[in-house]
Amino acid sequence: MSDFLIRPLTTDDPEWVSQFISRRWGTKRVIAHGTIYYPHKLPGFVALEDNQAIGLLTYQLDQSSCEIVTLDSTRPDQGIGTALINAVLEAARRSGCERVWLITTNDNLNALRFYQKRGFELVAVHRHAVDEARRIKPEIPLVGANGIPVRDEIELELPLNE
Ligand SMILES: CC(C)(COP(=O)(O)OP(=O)(O)OC[C@H]1O[C@@H](n2cnc3c(N)ncnc32)[C@H](O)[C@@H]1OP(=O)(O)O)[C@@H](O)C(=O)NCCC(=O)NCCS
User: Fold this and answer.
1) Mean pLDDT to the nearest integer, 101-105
2) How confident is the model at residue 1, as a pLDDT?
3) Which of 114, 146, 157, when mutated, tests ligand 1's pocket best, judged by the most ligand atoms within 8 Å of its CB?
4) Of 9, 50, 88, 132, which sits with the fewest C-beta atoms within 10 Å of its C-beta?
5) What is the CATH number of the domain that holds 153?
6) Cα-to-centroid distance, 63 and ligand 1 (Å)
7) How far is the CA of 138 from the centre of ligand 1 (A)?
8) Residue 110 CB–ligand 1 contact under 6 Å
9) Residue 162: pLDDT above 70?
10) If residue 46 lies in a helix (H) or strand (E), which one and from where to where?
């Protein structure tokens, strides 16, 4: 079991965040719902063990909602992902957000399980949205997790005011 701590990202963090995202996602930019994000420019939380990043969540706040842009854990099944989610939920509540939401892709059965077990609900399937994203970012693989074609964006949300 990991002995880790969670802290918010600071202005000292962008360089390693950019490298971390590149290692995990192939490039330092991610695309969701037609928007290009540079996670190293976003607020977020890091999970640290012995000063080494073993998990990272980045997010974007607007007036009433908080979008989780990336979530990565390099040590599965040790509670890191859950701790990062709890940190962003607390930040979103403090900021007065009504909901926390995110996009994942149709192949990511692990993420669909993970988020739904933490109270997130499926709210929309954006059919063939990844085909559109691939025009901007051709390196998005055609086949993803579990050998499933990567095609659709699935939107999940957790309402905060219930
Ligand atoms: C999704 C992801 C972030 C989850 O991170 P994680 O660190 O494995 O998450 P947790 O450890 O908190 O939870 C995973 C499972 O481990 C279990 N677990 C947590 N702590 C545990 C412990 N100490 N011992 C054993 N099992 C544990 C949890 O019960 C959980 O199972 P459940 O989801 O069936 O309830 C991770 O799989 C990942 O990085 N995926 C690739 C990137 C991705 O797809 N991101 C999301 C889309 S943007």
Assistant:
1) 98
2) 60
3) 114
4) 50
5) 3.40.630.30
6) 29
7) 28
8) yes
9) no
10) strand 44-49
Q: Whose CA is nearest to atom 19 of ligand 1?
A: 79
Alpha-carbon distance values, 40 to 44, 53, 114, 127, 162 (Å): 9, 14, 24, 28, 32
- Quick one: tokens of 92? 């979103």
Q: Which two tokens stand for residue 123?
A: 């709210």
Rounded CA gap, 148 and 134, in Å? Answer: 16
Report how far residue 75's alpha carbon sits from residue 57's, in angstroms, rounded to the nearest whole number. 14
Compute φ and ψ for 46, nearest 5 degrees: -120, 145
Q: What is the pLDDT of residues 111-132, one digit of tens each?
A: 999 999 999 999 999 999 999 9
Answer whether 0.85 is exceeded by the pTM: yes
Q: Which tokens belong to 152?
A: 């659709």
106 lines ligand 1 (CB under 6 A): no
Closest C-alpha to ligand 1, atom 18: 77
Distance 67 CA to ligand 1 centre (A): 19
Nearest CA to ligand 1 atom 41: 72
Domain count, the chain: 1
User: Which residue range forms the structural domain that includes residue 145?
Assistant: 5-159
Instruction: Write the DSSP symbol of residue 76.
Output: T
Q: Is the CB of 39 under 6 A from ligand 1?
A: no
